[in-house]
DNA sequence: AAAAAAT
């Protein structure tokens, strides 16, 4: 399959080509036609599957044809860096459409707030936001979302985990019920299912074989005591040809010490956690993407969605809390068909997590012992070490009930280990229901809209391929695709966008 | 048992 089979607006197609995309990914193959047909969508898809383009292209297609003067799409996502990255993707794919976008997220200085306020007041075709900051702006009254055509929830499960359900409902209640909603989630637990019933209308469900990391990731597990992790890490870095590495740790407090220890060894390393200033976060990520340093030490703030090209290695300094996050973390490498290596440290106390991961990815992973020159190795024996990872919360023998383990720990340079108290996340339920049957009526009402002149001209460039492929697919140029378009035909059209339409206002491009 | 997200 090729992109021209979607019969996207020529300006959108140009954007696809400009971004170097040639072949639609599985999620794109399924989601794009459904979204173009005006359907709500609930899609199971991880990052790294081309998910962003899967929802951006239909939105851009809509903008290219309809040229609405109001904001067309609201995209909600869990982390600030992801919002920024999606905004950059809009710039790329939407370049020829001239679509404007704003990224709205917290953490910046007060001038950022003012900048966001100005941009929101002026309006943009697409708003990409983390929920908290958007609500803060919405409460001040200048955010105009009452006419949006698309609501997109990216990483919906992650947002639920982060307690955003109430925030999202609060936002959704300000949106028109006449809209198309696309929900993307890496997992589909009941929580998401229930939630989706509230905000989606007769969604088409798209399921891909998720939870399986790419085959071209070389996954390695090392059995290692906490106290030996740093030594093993340095040993491995010495052996491997590390071009670019992300090292994940589950605790913010580990980041600094690991960073310093590696720097002491002469490595080019920087750290990132939510505790750092937003300026620093963005600078670090930009420099890492630009290969200005070799190793990024990060918490799970980096585990989802962040796209770094040519990342050769991912190290899990400790196991993530949720098995899903393992897949997300290692999915940072081997992107876009390249290969990569994922090394995971397994200590004596977190072996249950390995079992969960293996169940999830339906594959057993080889466990390598700590090399002798580093120190003694824990054995892999999850029955023996069944520990606090156990789901039921009850610790069978109470604390310190792991015979032999503590004493078996060698005394080596201490690896950074720390615990910090965490506030409990808010439970969320009982939120207002939203859309209903009007949605259906509206879709039938939508009329077909003739192509704007610019589109016809633009079509010249790609016309041949479009027609050719349509024929191959056994449909004429006015066939299926046109029917789809008729269904989602135009409303609220007010002629072409003025020349000075705002171009991505708030976010300076990361890769210049 | 953590992290993230509005201030």
UniProtKB/TrEMBL annotation:
> Which Pfam families does this entry report, sorted A to Z?
DEAD (PF00270), Helicase_C (PF00271)
- Cite the residue spans of the region called Disordered: 366-512
Task: Spell out the GO cellular component terms annotated for this protein, sorted alphabetically and separated by semicolons.
Answer: cytosol
* Signal sequence segment: none
Positions with biased composition (Low complexity): 413-435, 453-480
Q: Which InterPro entries match?
A: DEAD/DEAH_box_helicase_dom (IPR011545), DEAD/DEAH_RhlB (IPR044742), DEAD_box_RNA_helicase (IPR050079), Helicase_ATP-bd (IPR014001), Helicase_C-like (IPR001650), P-loop_NTPase (IPR027417), RNA-helicase_DEAD-box_CS (IPR000629), RNA_helicase_DEAD_Q_motif (IPR014014)
Keyword check for Ribonucleoprotein? no
Q: Which GO terms describe its molecular function?
A: ATP binding; hydrolase activity; nucleic acid binding; RNA helicase activity
Which residues does the UniProt record annotate as the domain Helicase ATP-binding? 32-206
Q: Which UniProt keywords apply?
A: ATP-binding, Helicase, Hydrolase, Nucleotide-binding
Domain DEAD-box RNA helicase Q: start-end pairs = 1-29
Q: Where along the chain is composition biased (Basic residues)?
A: 483-495
Q: Where is this motif: Q motif?
A: 1-29
State whether keyword Hydrolase applies. yes
Every Helicase C-terminal domain range:
232-376
Q: Which family does it belong to?
A: Belongs to the DEAD box helicase family.
Sorted alphabetically, which PANTHER family does this protein's record hold?
ATP-DEPENDENT RNA HELICASE RHLE, ATP-DEPENDENT RNA HELICASE RHLE-RELATED
What is the protein name given in its UniProt record?
Answer: DEAD/DEAH box helicase
Organism per entry: Solirubrum puertoriconensis
